[in-house]
User: What shape does this take?
Amino acid sequence: MQNKEEHLADWIQLINSENVGPITFYKLKNRFGSVGEALKALPKLQKFQLFPRGKAELEVELACKKHISLLSFEDPDYPENLKCLEDAPPVLYALGKKECLKNPLSLSIVGARNASINGRKTAARIAFDLTNNHVLVVSGMARGIDSSAHKGAMYANQQHGQTIAVLGTGIDVPYPKENTDLYEQIASQGLILSEFLLGTTAQPNNFPRRNRIVAALTLGTLVVEASSASGSLITARLALEQGKDIFAIPGAPNDSRAAGPNKLIKDGAVLVENADDILSVLALNNSAELKKQIHLSNRQKELPLIDSSALAKPETLLNSAEKTKMIDYISFDGVYVDEVIRASGKSASEVALDLLELEMSGQIVRQAGNKVARIK
Assistant: This one.
């Protein structure tokens, strides 16, 4: 009987062999009856060259040392949503809370890397509200809209909101470098996923591959800002091909970053102004999953929902005086969020919204241990 380490080494060796992609991987597995038998037959077949066995075994060993889970397609924790893909990753690397993969309600939020301030705030606020309504936010941890969506999600549920980041690099390679702190926060609070070997650096061809996972993991995709040539539209197209809901934030016709979302809306995407627009569609199309998730959350005594209309209304945004007042409670060295709540006299939900707004405005930054600090 093969042990788990040998099983994983087999799968890693085959998928990383020369000229073997996910589709070829599954064809070889089916043709020869198992991954192990496919590995035995591969040297006899033209055009294929085996990935070194020693490297595959070392990969399993290093992942264990770094507390990274390896999920083969046959693993019980492998996400069901991915199994519908013809080219589903045979092996996934996972760092963080694997239970995130069991959430039946999820939405990907994607958009421009050079996003506007308003675009980043919109992505963060919608992610915040979706998370407070049991919808898991998934994105690609790129700068701009992706990063803002992750941050908004983690501010939810009194700074305990979960989110999934899918990388186009090895799971141990935060990219871009400026998102290293965000990477560590997500790994601690949510989940990081990748299909690439440890140590894989950023390569252009890997990001479109990453996008298919982002699209497949979720029930739908929201595009906040994107040019007509944006990679975010690849995610939306893949989601559409998979039969998922497509959502888009409209923008001004003269803003190139609105070209992508506006075109999607013309083609039938759901026009979104706030999280309620998304929640209503998810509730209509996934009522059974929604009820199940709310039941599970209540049973686990998770934090209560926040009224989704609160974020959508302009009056919930901080005016200048309120910003100044809130930021006075925050030092440059950092302060615990609980201390800000006590000092301000506001509810945890109100403080979370205020802090999210301040971070999106570039005035504060989150720190480890549920702390925030002013930016010098």
